[in-house]
Amino acid sequence: MCYGNQVLLLFAIACASPGSDSADPCAEERVTWQDWGAGFFGGYCRTCHSSTTADRHGAPDGVDFDTLADVRAFAARVRVRVLEQQDMPVGGGVPDDDLSRLDTFLQCGL
Ligand code: HEC
């Protein structure tokens, strides 16, 4: 029987690729405020959520996304409304690749 050898071989293969399954989403893609976040929140949110917008369309006072610090302050609610309920921006409609970048950004870019 060569069963024992097969097990050893699998073990050797698993050990030959260190880090390939290390499941660190932050190592795979870098999504920063400068490269992506500022544009995303500017494009999708600031028509209503900005300290400088002329008409907030009912967005609560103080819930602004002008700076990285603003987004940090509301990060948990951003995750719920944009990723989970998908009702922000009002009515949803954010493309899947931006949703997945937002997910990475909220985990790794704040
Ligand atoms: C067309 C205007 C508009 C746009 C664009 C918009 N919002 Fe809102 N937002 C609102 C209004 C109105 C409310 C208050 C009513 C509500 O909570 O549904 C609100 C409330 C919120 C709140 C606070 C309420 C809570 O659940 O904690 C968060 C956080 C939020 N929006 C996130 C976002 C994000 C992030 C974006 C961009 C991806 C966005 N919104 C885009 C109008 C807008």
What can you see in these coordinates?
- By secondary structure, the chain is mostly helical.
- The protein has one domain (26-109).
- The chain contains six helices and no strands.
- The protein is globular and about 45 Å long.
- The N and C termini lie far apart (54 Å).
- The model is unreliable at 12-17 (pLDDT under 50).
- The structure holds heme C.
- Residues 44-45, 47-49, 57-60, 63, 74, 77-78, 81-82, 88-90 line the site of heme C.
The ordered string of helix (H) and strand (E) elements is HHHHHH
Q: Helix/strand/pairing class, anyone?
A: mainly alpha
Q: Could you say which small molecules are bound to this protein?
A: heme C
Which regions are unreliable across 5 or more consecutive residues at pLDDT < 50?
12-17
**Helical segment count:** 6
Q: Rg to the nearest angstrom?
A: 21 Å
Tally of discrete structural domains: 1
Strand content: under 5%
Shape, principal axes of CA atoms: globular
The termini sit apart by 54 Å
Helical content stands at 40-55%
Report the biggest beta sheet as strand number plus sense, adding barrel if it closes. Answer: none
Number of strands: 0
Averaging pLDDT over every residue, what do you get? 87
